[in-house]
Design brief:
Largest sheet: 8 strands, antiparallel
Strand order of the largest sheet: 7-8-9-10-15-14-13-12
Number of helices: 8
Oligomer: single chain
Order of helices and strands: HHEHEEEEHEHHHEEEEEHEEEE
Distance between the termini: 80 Å
Structural class: alpha+beta
Number of strands: 15
Number of domains: 2
Helix content: 25-40%
Strand content: 25-35%
Radius of gyration: 25 Å
């Protein structure tokens, strides 16, 4: 009897650990910065027979999503969306032509490749056979979209406005660049190729503006600072619209590129929030704080 009890206790301990171990195995790793920051994507389909529908479906899903601008040249791309039935060997930049391995269209595999290095940044597959390539492609892009959105930092309007009064940044108001840089606790450095800006970094600043840029006016003094949003940052425009009485709205197109934007300027002229229109989405672009 004692032996049976010891056996049951041991079995219970092992069984109780299984869900945790399984959960740890199933926990997805974070997507690398190269994926989160990417803006332009090239679709490549090594697609014999039934796999060929993956390219069309991928284009439709990515255009509907609107996060990436689709390009047709690898040298313009940040990411390559590679669809294939064989696992990627890491040789996209070095091999001579397309993959020449035999293909059995059993798997639909999506691999995200760094367009500059050829590195495999993320990959997943669906073993749904040659007749279900279209839904498999859609499912893979949906999974990627959910992963990216889960990893995107969502800033509230309060997060953004808090930086306008952050002493770590407001103390530089109207200083010359030389005086600001001379302060030992400044956290400032020059930006190569941008003589009218200084880079700022501080662990003590509010989260949204831990990294910022001081902007120098024509007189060489700091007259503003700016936070440039990355693709990993987002803000709900509806929150701003709900407080529309506090802001003035305007919009237009950048003169140097075919990109629509609109701006939200606080009534006191102290904070300018800029969004870019990408497909059906409004994407946070930058926030400037004026002194």
């Amino acid at each position: 009897m004692k032996g049976l009890i010891r056996y049951l206790l041991a079995f219970a301990l092992v069984a109780s650990s299984l869900p945790l171990a399984h959960a740890q195995e199933e926990t997805p790793s974070r997507l690398p910065d190269e994926v989160m920051q990417a803006e332009k994507a090239l679709i490549v389909c090594e697609c014999p027979r039934g796999l060929a529908v993956a390219e069309r479906r991928a284009l439709q899903e990515l255009q509907r999503w609107g996060r990436f601008r689709i390009v047709e040249d690898r040298h313009q791309a940040d990411l390559v969306f590679l669809f294939s039935a064989n696992q990627y060997l890491g040789d996209y930049l070095t091999r001579d032509g397309p993959d020449k391995r035999p293909v059995s269209v059993d798997f639909t595999i999506l691999t995200l490749i760094d367009a500059r290095t050829g590195a495999n940044l993320w990959s997943d597959s669906r073993r749904w056979g040659s007749w279900r390539v279209d839904p498999a492609t859609k499912d893979l892009i949906t999974e990627l979209r959910e992963r990216i959105e889960d990893q995107t930092k969502r800033w509230s309007l309060a997060d953004v406005l808090m930086c306008g009064a952050a002493p770590q940044l407001t103390r530089f108001a109207h200083m010359t660049a030389e005086i600001a840089l001379s302060r030992p606790e400044s956290g400032l450095s020059r930006i190569a190729g941008s003589p009218d800006r200084l880079a700022f970094s501080s662990a003590e600043a509010p989260d949204f503006c831990k990294q910022a840029q001081l902007v120098l006016g024509p007189d060489g003094r700091v007259n503003a600072f700016e936070v440039v949003a990355s693709k990993a940052d987002s803000m709900d425009l509806n929150e701003v619209v709900q407080q529309a009485d506090q802001f003035d709205f305007s919009g237009g197109k950048y003169p140097d590129r075919d990109q629509t934007y609109f701006s939200v300027l606080s009534k006191d002229k102290k904070v300018l929030i800029q969004f870019e229109v990408q497909g059906h989405r409004s994407v946070l672009s930058r926030v400037r704080y004026f002194f």
